[in-house]
Amino acid sequence: MSGFDSNPFVSSADVNPFQDASITEATSGALERAEFNPFSGDGLRDSGTTIPISQPAVLQASVESDPKSVAVAGAASLAKQQEELEKKAAELQRKEQDLQNLQNLAVSRGLPVGERVNNWPPLPRICPIKPCFHQDFEEEIPEQYRKICVRMYYLWLFHCTTLFLNVWACLAYFIADSMAGVDFGLSILWFILFSPVGFICWYRPIYKAFRSDSSFSFFFFFFVFFFQVAVYIIQTVGIPRWGNSGWISSISMIGTNLGVAVVMMVVAGFFTVNAVLAVVLMKMVHSKYRNTGASFSKAQVEFSQEVMSNRTFQTATASAATSAAQGMFQRN
Q1: What whole-number distance in Å separates Cα of residue 279 and Cα of residue 283?
Q2: Alpha-carbon distances of 253 from 158, 237, 260, 305, rounded to whole Å
Q3: Which of 52, 112, 190, 302 has the fewest CB atoms lying closer than 10 Å?
Q4: Cα angle vertex 201, ends 200, 207, to 5°?
Q5: Cβ neighbours of residue 144 under 8 Å, at least 6 residues apart?
Q6: Whole-model pTM?
Q7: Would you list the DSSP string of 106-170?
Q8: How far apart are CA 92 and CA 95, in angstroms?
């Protein structure tokens, strides 16, 4: 009976479930742990792995320009702009002065002020012969063609100078050799003939070509100037009795008269320089011509327009048509 009388829910001793050996060991603090501070490096120092610490981004300090250097650079730029403006103002003033001179010249000759006045050749006012052409590189020739056009003008001047010296060399040749009278006479003819012909037939066409971008003027220049180069080569060679003091004629005079031979050799050198410069300038003009867009078809169109707009051609055509019509009516 004693076994049944006992209360199973009553223990004779207070049993503390937390006094279990395993729980007591876990909570008793037998395993002492160091307090972890996340902001101290001790915990990381004890571990075997090393965690790299990245460096913080460093902003580059902006370099401020020195106000003095900026002021100096600005002053230099302003001085350069001022110099360019002064050059343009001087050029504009010069052009205005040239225009005023042309207007005064037109008024003195009784011409309208707006009409273009011929200024070449530059003859004095007292001369009865008046200028025949108008020439102004700065006003009429574009800047990209101005230099080559001026060089062609200088070539023509050198051409005339060479022909003039050729007359004196052939005169000395005639004095030393009485059989060289033909050369002296022909040299005078070449000087009188080729000086204006060169100006009209190859210099003025290239001037007009650069002035108005004329395809017809370009083609006419190349056609005539090719023969001019051939004439320069013949003059350089100096065939006897052809009126040219070239190398053959000058060398043949060495045994007869050394002084005359030297004079003739100088002129032969001038002819040689003429030939070389002519070839070089013709090549330069051709390179400029290829950049202008000129063509043979444009030259044909320009030629037809110029011929049809020519008053002389129109008058001649009208006269011929009228004569033909009258002849047909008379026959009927």
Answers
A1: 6
A2: 25, 14, 7, 54
A3: 52
A4: 70
A5: 288
A6: 0.62
A7: HHHTT--TTSPPP-BS---TT-SSPP-B---HHHHS-HHHHHHHHHHHHHHHHHHHHHHHHHHHH
A8: 5
For residue range 75-110, list pLDDT tens digits in order.
Answer: 888 888 888 888 888 877 777 776 676 666 555 655
pLDDT (tens digit per residue) in 131-190: 888 888 988 898 889 999 999 999 999 999 999 999 999 999 999 988 889 999 999 999
Q: Choose among 273, 271, 266: nearest CA to 173.
A: 266
d(CA 228, CA 105): 36
- Cβ contact 243:182 at 8 Å: yes
Phi, psi of 298 (to 5 degrees): -65, -35
SS3 289: helix
Residue entry with tokens 């010296």? 165
Residue 120 pairs in a beta bridge with 133
Residue 120, φ and ψ in degrees, nearest 5: -135, 135
Tokens standing for residue 260: 């005359």
Q: Which residue has the tokens 């037109």?
A: 106
Q: Which of 125, 128, 132, 133 is nearest to 107 (CA)?
A: 125
